[in-house]
Design goal:
heterodimer, A: about 375 residues, about 20% helix, B: about 260 residues, mainly alpha, MetI-like fold, 11 helices, about 0% strand, binds adenosine-5'-diphosphate, binds magnesium ion
Amino acid sequence: MTGGIRFDRVSVAYEGTTVLDALDLAVEPGEVMALLGPSGSGKTTALRAVAGFVRPAAGRVFIGDRDVTDLPPYRRGIGMVVQQYALFPHMRVEDNVAFGLKAQKVPRGDIRGRVAEALEMTGMAAFARRHPRELSGGQQQRVAIARALAVRPGVLLLDEPLSALDAQLRSGMLAELARLHRELPDVSVLYVTHDQIEALTLADRIAVMDRARLRDVGTPRQLYRAPRTEFTASFVGNANLLPVTVGADGVVFAGTELKVPTGGAARGATATLCVRPHLVGLGAGPNALTGSVAEVQWRGATHRLYVDVGGHRVKADLRELQRPPALGDEITVHFAPEDAVLLSAGVAAEDTAPVTAGEAAPVTAGKTAPVAEGVTRDG
Amino acid sequence: MLVHSRKGKWATWAVFFVLFLPLFALPLLVVLAASFATNWSSAFPSGFTTGHYTAATRGESLQALTTSLVTALTASLIALVVGTWAALAGHALKKRGKRLLDALFMLPVAVPSVVVGLAILVAFSKPPMLLNGTRWIVVLAHAVLVTAFAHQSVSAAVVRLDPAYEQAAASLGARPSYVLWRVRLPLLLPSLTAAAGLCFALSMGELSATMMLYPPDWTPLPVQIYAATDRGALFTGSALAVVLMTATVLVLFAVSRIRTKASYR
Ligand SMILES: Nc1ncnc2c1ncn2[C@@H]1O[C@H](COP(=O)(O)OP(=O)(O)O)[C@@H](O)[C@H]1O
Ligand SMILES: [Mg+2]
């Protein structure tokens, strides 16, 4: 079975409320696509549309070359792992893993081998005779993955699979998932998460969702280095979103001229400048901004300073300071011109993005976030 | 009940003894005493014999016990199958259809069982559905009377069943019938056995509808007890009652053993 998932203008509504609005997205065979967005943005709904547990009100869903929109879930050839794992409590681990094979009438002789193989791959071979209740959360999750992989699906759907684990286990499992995908390079993975770290770590491409809509698609690098919208900038990593006016050879922020690439934006237009807090340096330099310290947070390895510049808060993440400034101190921070991105979505109605939103499913200008949303987020 | 203060605890115990002992325990103890007694002229029975039990566990009485057991087991099985099927079907229905189905199944509970007995007698006394005079009319009446309880308790469990399990099963390629047998019913097993126990106990004690329907060769134990006390044989009746209680409790105990095994997962 060839992998790949394609959403073709898929809309889903619950009792008249649209929770997924004309989603256009393609996951290539063998690709890991993260569906990233805040809670309630419609990620799970999109995944359930692929699995067949919700019927789109409009649009088609394709798995490989097959239009599966009208197929029941059991005929779609998917593997799925959900947040609460849903291991069958009345079956041993090996029977859980064998379930899909028996249901699909795989010859008896092959089942043992494939169960062993799946458990081996997830490191759970030693637990085959246990019941799910005798396993820890992390082990249950491995079994859930083994169970989904045993049927050799063309596409694997993962819905926040790590969110029930503690932070330590989570980073270990992230590495495991990456390894599993290297071992199964043909499987397409749709990975739903609200955690940017998981998306950045694991995904070949990230689709950013907000309020039922796709906002952006791109490689983690593209979305992080050159976000197109305020929403993407703030949701994928932290961001200073500074309201600026485009000038002759840069922009003007709070009365200060800043040298940044404007990408051909029209003079006099108002726009938003995105600067990552960890790329802001202390002291004089190019694009210096002076203001008073409004807040200091010590975060172990870093200090987070909030600096009031002309009535706007600028965040700076600095390597742990020997002598951090006091509240109200007058300080100067700066950033390199190439570290700032003028958000294109705010500049013009046309799609003058420095980054196109991914080759397979370009996002049209109509679907980008409204300019005036004023997203401010902090991680 | 969570009662924390010492006074509150005392009050709870006092209420328990005042209500429970005279209302529930004492009558049963008197029946137990009467079943061994030779004489009952004062407030409590006196004397001691096991003779009533010798009579209560042979011949006609033994026949009545097996009749009751067979009736109750068959009726519970029918009730469980029909009730479970209706509960699962109702779960798949839309709101209105579900409410209609629920109401339909509650009907035999709302209607007095004498009326149910009469209705069944009238309905099944003419060909082509001539069941009157056979044991099947008793089994049928019991099944009709207890199905409501099976339906109710299985319905409640079906609603509580996490859809994530059946969805996981479906995503693995299992068709709905396979999911039903391998996932949903096994997960419902604790509630199914609870429902079976309830149906069995109710059927073992059923008298009013049975009285209207039973043929001479199919006399359940409650009818036998009634007949004994009616002709003044109180001691024999008590012994039969104790046999009925014991048999019911033993079966319920066996069922609850299956239940603990099923829920220990
Ligand atoms: N079964 C349902 N019935 C009604 N509304 C639902 C249902 N499932 C989800 N929703 C709503 O749809 C929206 C999107 O939900 P979901 O796709 O689960 O979001 P996410 O996974 O991104 O957190 C939410 O506002 C949620 O309340
Ligand atoms: Mg979700």
